[in-house]
Design brief:
It is a single chain. The chain is an alpha+beta fold. It is about 35% helix and about 20% strand. It is built from six helices and six strands. Strands 1-2-3-4-5-6 form a six-stranded mixed beta sheet. The longest helix has 27 residues, at about 190-215.
C-alpha cells in the first residue's frame, strides 16, 4: 500500500467511470452489455441491492506529493459476504462523489471486530474495495475497481475465517447498476459535532426569549 500511496498521479476520469458504474440505461437492452449478467447477479440476489446500513468508524485522508488518498473503515452487523461487498461498493461510490481523490478504499469490518486502526486488517476485514479513477497511474490497479469479500460469517470476535472471493469488473458494474441507494454510512462523530454546533444557538435563543419576556 505504501507503494500505491507514494506513486499516485492525478486523474480526470472520475465522473466518466462512476457514471459507467452507477448509470442504469433507459434502454431495456442495456443488460446485454454484461456477459452473463443474470448469472453474475444470481449470488447477489438478496433483498437490498444497495447493501446494508453501516456505521463509519474512521476516515483517513492522506496528501502525498500533491496526491490524495482516502481510506474509510466501516462496520456492519452480522452481514453475509454479498451484503458486505454491496455495502462497500455503495459507500466507495458515494465517497468518490463527495470528495475528490486519486485512490479510494472502503474496508468493511464486523460490529464485534476490532476498532483500532492497527486491528483493521487480515481476518478482521469482511470486504475491501479499492477504486482508482485513473487506474493506470496507480501501481497494482489494472482496472478502476479491486473488490473482494470473505465468504464466511464473522465469529464472536468479529473475525472472518472463510475463503476470499474476488469480483471481476463486470460483476462490480452489474451490482452497482442495480443500486437504488447512494448513501454513505452513518457517522456518529459527525452527528455529535452537529449537535455541539447547534447547542449554543439553541441556548442563545432561549436566553433571548427570556429577555423579551422580562420587558
Amino acid at each position: 500500500m505504501k507503494a500505491i500511496l507514494s506513486k499516485l498521479r492525478p486523474s480526470k476520469r472520475l465522473v466518466v467511470i462512476l457514471s459507467a458504474a452507477f448509470g442504469v440505461s433507459a434502454a431495456s437492452g442495456a443488460a446485454a452489455v454484461y456477459v452473463g449478467r443474470d448469472q453474475i447477479l444470481s449470488r447477489f440476489a438478496e433483498p437490498s441491492a444497495s447493501g446494508l446500513e453501516c456505521t463509519a468508524l474512521r476516515t483517513l485522508k492522506l496528501d502525498h506529493n500533491g496526491q490524495r488518498w482516502i481510506r474509510m473503515h466501516v462496520k456492519t452487523d452480522r452481514a453475509g459476504g454479498p451484503e458486505r461487498i454491496r455495502t462497500a461498493l455503495r459507500v466507495v461510490g458515494a465517497l468518490a462523489n463527495k470528495e475528490k481523490a486519486d485512490l479510494y478504499q472502503v474496508v468493511v469490518l464486523d460490529a464485534a471486530g476490532p476498532e483500532d486502526r492497527a486491528g483493521a486488517r487480515g481476518a478482521a476485514v469482511g470486504a475491501d474495495v479499492l477504486f482508482a479513477p485513473g487506474p493506470r497511474s496507480v501501481p497494482g490497479m489494472d482496472e478502476p475497481f479491486r473488490a473482494s469479500y470473505n465468504e464466511a460469517m464473522a465469529n464472536a470476535a468479529g473475525m472472518f475465517r472463510g475463503k476470499l472471493v474476488t469480483l471481476g469488473l463486470d460483476e462490480v458494474r452489474a451490482i452497482m447498476a442495480r443500486m437504488d441507494d447512494r448513501s454513505l454510512c452513518i457517522d456518529p462523530a459527525a452527528a455529535e459535532m452537529e449537535g455541539a454546533d447547534t447547542a449554543p444557538a439553541a441556548k442563545e435563543t432561549t436566553a433571548d426569549a427570556e429577555g423579551h419576556g422580562g420587558h
